[in-house]
Amino acid sequence: MMLVISIIMGGCKSTKKLSEVTKAEEIELPFSDAKYKTDKDFFRAVQTGISPDLSTSRKIALQNAKTELASNVQTVIKAVTDNYTNQRTVNDRQEFENKFEELSRQVTNQQLSDVKVIGEKSFKETDGRYSFWIAIEMSKDILLKSFQGQISNDEKMKLDFDKYLYEKVFEQEMEKFLNR
After folding, report:
1. Count of C-beta atoms within a 10 Å radius of residue 59
2. Inter-axis angle of helices 140-152 and 163-178, to 10 degrees?
3. What is the mean pLDDT of residues 29-47?
């Protein structure tokens, strides 16, 4: 009887410890406020990098943030290109779409060198490594102007390009992107 009671008591103790261990603790991540999220004026990205070297952790974080930013820009530009070409009568639709996508990659890559850092935080982890958080942004208007400038340099694309319609479609796709 004592053996059964001790087994039950031991089981209760381990259950309590198990439930304490499985409780998740919520943590607040750096730069999680709304001002660090993409909005109607700026594409933004927040990322982290971890390394035994502080400067390397910053480089990793910046590269990760630029990759995320470029991916988000490409998502919007692809949707804009698809919708824009569907609303326009373009002689060679496929060639036009391919040129647009190539141009958008080129412009995005150029603009990524001019992103603005809007926040940085570094932490020394318990294992001695550094974690670095970075928040960056890129102006939607500068991206659009750069894109339109590249189009005006291509005579064939310029003939098929309606700046007003493109901006209108771009704004619609930004709204969809923000509300996803």
Report:
1. 15
2. 150
3. 94
Task: State pLDDT tens for residues 11-35.
Answer: 555 555 555 556 788 888 999 999 9
Could you give the CA distance from residue 178 to residue 172 in angstroms, rounded to a whole number?
10
Confidence of residue 46 (pLDDT cuts 50, 70, 90): very high
Report how far apart, in Å, the C-alpha atoms of 66 and of each of 56, 138, 169 are: 15, 10, 24
pTM of the model: 0.76
Token code pair at residue 172: 């619609």
Averaged pLDDT for residues 94-99: 75
Distance of alpha carbon 144 from alpha carbon 141, whole angstroms? 5
Residues 19 and 49: their CA atoms lie apart, in Å, by 32
- Cβ neighbours for 60, distance < 8 A, ≥ 6 positions apart: 49, 50, 51, 132
Angle among Cα 94, 178, 28 to the nearest 5 degrees reads 135
49 class by beta-carbon count within 10 Å (0-12 exposed, 13-18 middle, 19+ buried): buried
Q: Which two tokens stand for residue 13?
A: 């103790």
